[in-house]
């Protein structure tokens, strides 16, 4: 019996109609030059606990940028492991079917290494910064691309430039784009603790920015992870 080393990519998606969470997992040879996924499996959380095979007719190497919007998983993908990301693969969580979205040369920033996939008004969006994921008072600019029509593969591009007077707001610190809230505010945060520690909200519609201080971060050690629209259940459950 021969053994083969394989690598695994897995994504978590949610179907809002059936109210089900599903895991999409793809395997590919870890020592392969092309890195194209071979087996595609789906697991429904809370179901029978068994994986089932699904078919994908789009040979691709899955990337690690992923987001789930209205029951569809979107993730960047490559033709081969050695190539750059060149497409967006779509996985319908409910039907468990694959499709893909073309990215033309004018919108290559969507699949760039420095892009961040976001949910923009229920549509797939991508934010790209001049620096590597970073925004600061001196490089206060980013490009927002929005998928306006998935069937026609049509995108739109929007450029945002922070005014010079905002440089004092950032205080010469470097921020990373976390995502976009339901109120269309881009969240910017540091990845290292500081005192004081601020999280910034840039409103895409009003083009205004607000700063929120998070207390108690001065003594914290390690990286800081910021999440969008996180809700924690603080209900106290009494044991009997």
TrEMBL record:
Location of the F-box associated beta-propeller type domain: 5-231
InterPro entries: F-box-assoc_dom_typ3 (IPR013187), F-box-assoc_interact_dom (IPR017451)
Pfam family, one: FBA_3
Protein name: F-box protein DOR-like
Organism for this UniProt entry: Camelina sativa (False flax)
């Amino acid at each position: 019996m021969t053994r083969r080393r394989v690598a695994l990519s897995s994504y978590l998606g949610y179907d809002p109609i059936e109210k089900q969470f599903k895991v999409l997992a793809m395997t590919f040879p870890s020592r392969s030059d092309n890195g194209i996924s071979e087996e595609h499996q789906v697991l429904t959380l809370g179901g029978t606990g068994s994986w089932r095979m699904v078919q994908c007719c789009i040979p691709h190497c899955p990337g690690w940028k992923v987001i789930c919007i209205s029951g569809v998983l979107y993730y960047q993908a490559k033709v081969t492991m050695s190539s750059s990301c060149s497409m967006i693969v779509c996985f319908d969580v409910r039907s468990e079917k694959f499709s893909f979205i073309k990215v033309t040369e004018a919108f290559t920033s969507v699949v760039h290494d420095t892009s961040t996939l976001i949910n923009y008004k229920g549509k797939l969006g991508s934010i790209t910064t001049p620096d590597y994921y970073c925004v600061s008072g001196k490089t206060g600019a980013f490009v927002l691309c929005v998928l306006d029509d998935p069937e026609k593969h049509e995108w739109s591009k929007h450029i945002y430039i922070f005014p010079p007077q905002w440089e004092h707001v950032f205080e010469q610190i470097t921020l990373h784009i976390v995502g976009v809230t339901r109120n269309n505010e881009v969240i910017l945060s540091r990845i290292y603790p500081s005192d004081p520690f601020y999280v910034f909200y840039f409103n895409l519609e009003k083009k205004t920015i607000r700063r929120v201080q998070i207390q108690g971060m001065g003594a914290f050690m390690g990286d800081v992870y910021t999440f969008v629209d996180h809700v924690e259940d603080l209900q106290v459950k009494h044991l009997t």
